[in-house]
Specification:
heterodimer, A: mainly beta, 4-stranded antiparallel sheet, 4% helix, disordered C terminus, WD40_repeat_dom_sf (chain A), Anaphase-promoting complex subunit 4 WD40 domain-containing protein (chain A), repeat (chain A), WD40_repeat_CS (chain A)
Amino acid sequence: MSLTELDDGLVRSMAIGAVFSDFGGKIRSVGFHRTDDLLVTSSEDDSLRLFDIANAKSRRQVKVTYHKKHGTDRVCFTHHPSSLICSSLYNLESTGESLRYLSMYDNRILRYFKGHKDRVVSLCMSPINDSFMSGSLDRSVRLWDLRVNACQGILHLRGRPAVAYDQQGLVFAIAMEGGAVKLFDSRCYDKGPFDTFLVGGDTAEVNDIKFSNDGKSMLLTTTNNNIYVLDAYHGEKKCGFSLEPSQGTSLEATFTPDGKYVLSGSGDGTLHAWNIENPSEVARWENNIGVASCLKWAPRRAMFVAASTVLTFWIPNDGEAPAPADPSADQQRPQ
Amino acid sequence: MGLDEDDFVFHGTPIEREDEIASRKKKAVAGASGTLKTLPAWKQEVTDEEGRRRFHGAFTGGYSAGYYNTVGSKEGWAPQSFTSSRKNRAGARQQSISDFLDEDEKAEMEGQSLSASSQFDTFGFTAAEHSRKQAEKEQHERPSAIPGPVHDELIAPAPESIGVKLLLKMGWRRGHSIKDVRASSDARREARKAFLAFSADENTKESSDSLVLETEAETSLGPQFSEDIKFSETTPVYVLNPKLDLHGLGYDPFKHAPEFRENKRSRLSASKEAGYRKPLSMKESLFGPKSGKMAPGFGIGALEELDVEDEDVYAGYDFDQTYVIEDEQPARPSNDNRLRLTSKEHNVLPGFGAASNSDYSVERFDPPKIPKDFVARHKFSGPRETETKPTASTPPDVPPPEDKNLKLLIDGFATFVSRCGKLYEDLSREKNESNQLFDFLRGGSGHDYYARRLWEEQQKRSGQSNLQLDVKVPPSVQKMTAETRGSLLGERPLQKSLKETETSSSSGGSFQFPTNLSDTFTKSASSQEAADAIKPFKEDLAKQERFEQFLKEKYKGGLRSSDSNRFNIVSESARAQERLDFEAAAEAIEKGKAYKEVRRATERPIDFLAGGLQFTSGGTEQIKDTGVVDMKTSKTYPKREEFQWRPAPLLCKRFDLPDPFMGKPAAAPRARNKMDSLLFLPDTVKAASGSGARQVSDLQEPEKEPEVEVEVENVERPVDLYKAIFSDDSEDDEEQQPMNGKIQDGQEKKNEAAATTLNRLIAGDFLESLGKELGFEVPSDAPYPEGTKPMEAENKPKGKPDASSERRPGLKEKPEEKTSSLKLVSEEEKSTQKREKSPRNWSGGNDLYSSESSGDERRRKRSKKDRHRNYDSESDSSSDYHKRDKHSSRSRRKQRESSREKRSGHKKHSKHYKTKDSSSSRYSGDEERKESKREKRRRRD
């Protein structure tokens, strides 16, 4: 079965296809590989788990590694399917090893990236080259290169930063407290932002920022549970959604690969899907796993994962079990 | 050995054992940097890693080989894929002999071994195929942007079949038929040799011989010669008969006239004969057998004469493996020619018999038949026919009715109907069923006159068109009156009475109205108004002018003239008010017109056109509505707007283009509306937009616009105040002028001003700090209501485009400021900066601000500092920079810089009293830097 397009019906039909509940705590972050069918999760039991999202259920969980010394917080794949960047939780003051470059293949730390004085809350890998960005609670955003353990660039701002590369890797966005979004050219970031938007009306800290695959929209999640879809070119709000407040957990929202839908968890334990082309709520799912703090749509599949203390794989439910479709067709839309 | 001892040369890459590496390495390093290169190659001595002299092999150069006579590089040959990973040690790697062989050696080796060529390598092929399939499958699984098969398969050239290769090896060449020519050619070669022996001296013999051969060939092989036949069998036609003409491919001009082809051939061959000698000789050999033969391929000079030496001594010697006869062959066209000649003799080609009856006949087609009733002229149905009708019966000449108005009306109406056709008459008759005024349409008073006028008008028109077409004038010519003839000829009729002139002039005036209807209308209206002195805004001439413009626009329709932009001077609210006034006035005028029973009858028909007949009844009522409606209707009026499109910066980045508006003030509409919404929005709006509503989509609130507009004007004051305080420099004035909402000429300068972001940052920060220091209340909250944005962007007049881009006053600061330290600094830079200006850098500089009272203040200062770190030196130099003549004409960039400096110069004060006492040494360093900066700038300028 192959899908060429996501539509309302399909989004509505998404249902839990697999559940992994052997996590020893809440899941802190999940990350998909851009091209391979891989998923990595980091959870409170200081484990990193690698999943194969395309294969049969029994083999899904590929690898588990524990990182008791540093802990695992934010995690994201590099371009290599077995290399990860993971941010640390413990011993930050003493070691400063806030970011680690891990090889899951032989379970080694390839490199430490030292610099952040506090927890990293936003981590983003460039889609085109080896550079990546991290935003930390020490109010700085640092730009790194995987090949060098020295920081390539640093940016001091106020409050909690959120960083995101766009899909072309040409531009990255940094969102900060007060709803300001700054766009930088990733090739000459030292020239300062080339564009600045202000997302008024909500001065809460920005939790997360994301570009849609087509580059036309940005998704801004704030700490007081509002989600805004912004026009990436002019920064105008296309639509905004507010969610039930969730205590202690930050929610995550995600675009579908075609950039037409936005999914998010909510504080009351439900999941929502909105169509953003003509803003309307498409679907709402009762989630049996509690508040989904992590939610990501697979970049090339018609599936998403939602995670709280358990990890759930959501796939279109139309008879057949796992339906690895190819929204990559949607990805090929002209950007 | 001294120094030379260290000179050594590497050959190849040694496989090193780790314990030895360390000791050797030193030497290697020393050697690499040594005097190795200075010595010529033959003087270099080969040493090994230990520095021992190494015998290099007697046959390759002995002790002093160096790179001499070797592969010639320091690397030498390297074992294939030598990996020196510390983790994956190059263990027991399987090395084959081929790893150590050169290319040529490999080739040798392969010459001995037996392997299938790519042609027959089924395995290789299948492997390739397999991999291709695999790729395809993969692609299928994961479709990419380009579907379909792999492309190189499509493009790959088809290899030659083995059969062709074999044939080629055996001596076959392309274009030849596959036939055993060897036997015959062997025999011929023998014959040729024998023949050559004769031909040296015996001309006659030879020629006769050739003749014999020729006839032989002819008889045996038919029309062509044996070799030729073989050629022509497989040689493509385009080789035999290269296309020399300019006709299209496949086109044969002589298809149906072969006799002309013959002509042309002979002409061609004739022209060739002028250039060549060979055809000539051929001809001679044909017709005069005693002539000498030319060697093929050897011509003679133009001034030379054909003599004995030029005779073909090796006549028929085979260059092309062809038989001797070929030499006697004429060039191909003439060959044909000769064939033709012979065929002409017998009327058939040799070997063919003439057919007794010919099937050949040219099929001819008759042209299609024209229907009998076809007239080669197009007739137009419609008004023209209706026009011609009344000519049949000419209504009698009737005196005009007593009522002058009625007469005018009838005249105008007749003119109009004659122009627009009878249909219009019917229409208006229907429409004005109850209107007394139009009784003449229904046979009331004045009907006769109307009929007459109508007829006259139609005559006039048809006469014109008839004149144009030069068609016979209908029989009513003899009844033509002097008046009609006069009007027909364009004469000005003699004046019977005053009325008469009026009508004629009016009709003449309105004669052109279909083309520029609106002009005539407005003209007449204005003239009438002038006459009647309907000038509602007499006291204000400009306003009256605008009113006329407004009337024109109102009834004109179509495109708006661009000079409506004039009104932009007036603010939006004032304009709205004025528009209301205008509407009211226009309504009054209309009403007056309607109820005055249409004194100006000529205007009526035009009036109909303009507004339709309902205009008087329904239209007035519509206008009677209150101003609110009017506002709305006028809003919906299609309006052409001009604005400069500028791409979003992100768009430029995405397309990897330099932003054409880089460094120019930000997009006017967007920035303005941002500013407006930030600055001047009433609290209600703020509150409304403050809450993150559930699915907030952009609402457009057009009503808000005037409000905002008005407030823009109010805000001028604080800036004026700033200006008053810092008004001593002219550049600043330029910078701030846009605040006043005027398009000023300094715009260009500003367009080249600093990058927008910088400007914004600086301006914003500046204002904020200024506000704080002057004790102004700077609102701290800067919500950004999304509702108002887009509409404002669209509706704002272009008048004040730059106000916000240059300066984002007060309210905007907060969010801006937060981001103010947004300057990504590379680490190295940072460290150097740290070294340079340690008192100031932000990581170490915190203690500096401990004296500051409020944390907020500190933060602000700090952020400012961060931002302007880059401009520090500039701002430092700004003070004396100002002392130099400010008003001298500097380059624009300088202006920009200096203005920026001025702004930051203000901050500089607060900065300097700190830095001065903290580190005077640094300050002097600053001085120096400033000096150099200035120097640089001078040079740049």
